Amino acid sequence: MMHMTFYWGKSATILFDGWRTSTWLGYLLSLVALLLAAAFYQYLEALRVRVKLIAEGSAKPASSIPPPASSDPRTPLLAPAFAGRWPPRVAVAAMFGVNSGLGYLLMLSIMSFNGGVFIAVVVGLALGYLAFRSSDGEDLVVVDNPCACA
C-alpha cells in the first residue's frame, strides 16, 4: 500500500519495488544512501557551476564576434551565440541533465512519504551545500534562471 501522508517506520518502498526496507539495518543503510546521494547532488551542482565559469572565462568575448547581417536571409541566427564554444556548452548541458535526473530521483524518494527518508534527503542536501557550495560565492554569481523550479 502506498502512503499518502507522512509516516514513521522501517518499512518503506523507495523509488521502485526492489528497494523495500523491512529491517532496521536495511532502513538505516537506505537512509545513509539517500543522504549521500543528496550530498552528491550538491557536489555535482558546484562542479557544474565551476565548469560553467571556466567555460565562460575561456570563451571569446562577444565583441570579437561580428554581428550578423540582418539583411541577408542566409545568415544563421544562432551562429554568433555558439561560435567556438560547443564542447564546454555540451559538457555543462550534460552535467545539468545528470544533476536534474538525480534531483528528480531524490524528489521521488521523498514521495515515499516516509519521515526518515524526508529527513535524510534534506539533511544530505544541507550537508552537501555546507561542504561543497557555501565557502565560495560562485552560486551567487551564476544564476541561470531566477525561477525556483529551474
Automatic annotation (TrEMBL):
Q: Which family does it belong to?
A: Belongs to the copper transporter (Ctr) (TC 1.A.56) family. SLC31A subfamily.
The UniProt keywords, alphabetically, are: Copper, Copper transport, Ion transport, Membrane, Transmembrane, Transmembrane helix, Transport
Return one GO MF term: copper ion transmembrane transporter activity
User: Key word Transport present in the record?
Assistant: yes
**Membrane topology term:** Multi-pass membrane protein
Could you tell me what this protein is called? Copper transport protein
Q: Which InterPro entries is this protein grouped with?
A: Cop_transporter (IPR007274)
Residues spanning the membrane? 24-44, 90-107, 113-132
What would be the name of the gene that encodes this protein?
A: COPT5.1_0
- Source organism per entry reads Zea mays
Q: What is its main location?
A: membrane
